[in-house]
Amino acid sequence: MEEDDEGFRYPIIDSEKCIGCGRCHKVCPMENTPVRHQEEKVVYGGHHISTDVVLASTSGGAFSAIVDGWCDMNYVIFGAESKGTRILHSYIEDKRDISIFRKSKYAQSEIGNSYIKTKEFLKAGKKVLFSGTPCQIAGLEMFLGSCNRTNLLTIEVICEGIPSPLLIRKLSKHYGDIRDIDYRNKTKYGHWDFQMMKIETSHGAKVIDRWFNPFWSIWLQHLISRPSCYECPFATKERVADISLGDLWGVHLFCPELYNHNRGASLIICNSKKGKEALNHALPFMEGHFLQYEEAVKYQSPLRKPIEYNKRREVCLEDLRDDAITYKEIVSKYATKPSIRLLIHKYVWGNRQKMLLWNIFNKRR
């Protein structure tokens, strides 16, 4: 796997070693459509019963609840782990170490030998929980071929495109030695809505508010996403993974009782029988209830369609490649500032205040 000039990794064939068997093309999920689950979905919204787990998670801690319920004996858990600014796929054999896989990482993880190890563990009779992006789950399914999947549970994150690492590299030059990035930290305020980015450097920590964060602005404009993300074949109702996990966006509109005091709420979509069984095992560790699919995905566009292409993408990435252009210049040119209306909605009269009145009103009834 080698990076192109945009920072994205692609498979490169070594012509001196290639024997022309074509297996790489046969297992490529972009060239071959993996099996997608067609059965009726089960949707659940809520959060982990442990407040500590919720605050340590990006949204409501649903991943931890599924792990608690499904991983009993002789199991292995695969997920994305942060190593400074790099994201690597790795595995653990003790769910008490699950913290390394919590939190969303807004970068393409390096799969390494995770697919190979997954097949080895399955052949050895172990239960394997594999989490990743939709395309990574599709890649795993194609790679496994005829391997017995009885003990495999796949969990995908609801993905809105993978950003180029070039922006984070510019950020690293700006701040110096970055030891860790928590893209959506709750520890300062404990608030899910604010999505604070916490950057740990050798000089201390820097915390940036969601609505003043250039990274979020540039990424959410779809200026730096991987080319395939604009035509993603997995951004559809039919999914490859057993379970889809994400934030319960729109919770304050259609199920305010699950707002969880702005600590975080998860959306769980079970796409297969195996996913539904895993959810049943997780329910003792969750607080919430079942939801209607169409209502829940109304605020989840990546479950319906790929992201839209931004015409300024090529220019933005060209500037990111230019070492003479600084991070501040990138921010000045491409990041947008929040409107007064948005700031009033978030800080003066927003979801938190509306939910507070909703809770007071319902307690009096």
Quick overview:
This protein has 365 residues and is α+β, with helices and mostly antiparallel strands. The chain is built from 14 helices and 13 strands. The chain has helices spanning 23-26, 51-55, 62-70, 114-123, 134-144, 166-175, 214-220, 251-254, 273-282, 293-296, 313-321, 327-334, 340-348, 351-364; strands at 2-3, 9-10, 42-48, 75-83, 86-92, 127-132, 152-157, 178-185, 196-201, 204-208, 243-247, 266-270, 286-291.
Protein model, in words:
With 365 residues, the chain is α+β, with helices and mostly antiparallel strands. The protein has one domain. The protein is 31% helix and 20% strand. The chain is built from 14 helices and 13 strands. The protein has helices at 23-26, 51-55, 62-70, 114-123, 134-144, 166-175, 214-220, 251-254, 273-282, 293-296, 313-321, 327-334, 340-348, 351-364, and strands at residues 2-3, 9-10, 42-48, 75-83, 86-92, 127-132, 152-157, 178-185, 196-201, 204-208, 243-247, 266-270, 286-291. Strands 5-4-6-7-11-12-3-13 form an eight-stranded mixed β-sheet, sandwiched between helices. The chain has a three-stranded antiparallel β-sheet with strand order 8-9-10, with no helix packed on it. The model has no long low-confidence stretch (mean pLDDT 93).
Write the layout of secondary structure elements.
Layout: E1 2-3, E2 9-10, H1 23-26, E3 42-48, H2 51-55, H3 62-70, E4 75-83, E5 86-92, H4 114-123, E6 127-132, H5 134-144, E7 152-157, H6 166-175, E8 178-185, E9 196-201, E10 204-208, H7 214-220, E11 243-247, H8 251-254, E12 266-270, H9 273-282, E13 286-291, H10 293-296, H11 313-321, H12 327-334, H13 340-348, H14 351-364
